[in-house]
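Thread: Newbie trying to understand structure tokens

Hi all, I'm a second-year student working on a class project, and my supervisor (Dr. K.) asked me to get a predicted structure for one chain before our next meeting. I've only ever worked with sequences, so writing a 3D structure as a token string is new to me. If someone could post the tokens and maybe explain what I'm looking at, I'd be very grateful. Here's the chain:
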Amino acid sequence: MTSATSASGPHVPVLLDEVISALAICPGEIHVDGTYGAGGYSRAMAAQGAHVVAIDQDPDAIAEGRVRIGRDGDAITLVEGSFSSMTSILDDLGIQQVSGVALDIGVSSMQLDRPDRGFSFQADGPLDMRMSKAGITAADFLNTAPEEEIADILWRYGEEPRSRRVARAIVAARPLARTSELAQVVRRALGHKPHDKKDPATRVFQAVRIHLNGELEELERGLEAAEAVLAPGGRLAVVTFHSLEDRIVKHFLRRRSGGDAGGSRHRPQTTRRHSPAFAKPAKPVRPSAEELDRNPRARSATLRSAVRMDTAHVREDEG
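---
Reply by user tm_fold:
Sure, no problem. This is what the structure looks like when written as tokens:
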């Protein structure tokens, strides 16, 4: 959900032109923006003539979005909630099917750039990291979880090769309350030097944030929900920012377009009950050199898209 930021203008989402192209909006269509954020995708979708149902779980994004929509009069219906719940959200609005769904996965620049949200170590703030501002904070988790569980989270969601060493250092330094404290613990544990290209705290912050917000599970449910609400010919466009997210989207679209029906020694044989739900996905798209010059945070972004076919969604028998 990372966006470019400027002092004179709003956040501009990554791969905005490419997402709008993939959605191929016709005036009068209904589209879903599953991650409203600062509203960049929604406004661009509305400018193409779509009515947009925009969803966000962050109460700050909802509050600021309602002010903006009330002022600008965009054709946007803003709903607080998770995009994995888009089926019930659309039901409540009396909408059965939509022509497009856009999902921009991860943390937004709005969240990263506000120290009080605790998503970044670039400026000191409370160790929070909650996208919905509900539930336990990062401090709650790190100060109470067993060392083994912390190590497992850092390995699984941050792909941190020395996760056990970092977890041991975190437990030894408890209690932790600030983002700067966690970053320093990680740097000391891993021998970070100021001139090193990448700060090792990046992987740890990513892992804790993903775990705390259940981001990968939310993505999996959101993809299934998008499949359920898309009308025949509807378009799905998903922007991810790291390999764990991208892998989920890639494999989902491969399965749902009939790309791995035969199974393998790692994956049980599947029995197809219906035809593929999506046509063969488009080739993945990454930011241009010009976009990277404007917004270095876009460097890891990947867009994957596909068109919904006129069939029931794919179901699989396990085992």
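A couple of things are worth pointing out once you decode it. The first strand starts at residue 3 and ends at 4. Residues 3-10, 261-272, 313-319 have pLDDT under 50 and may be disordered. Feel free to ask follow-ups in this thread.
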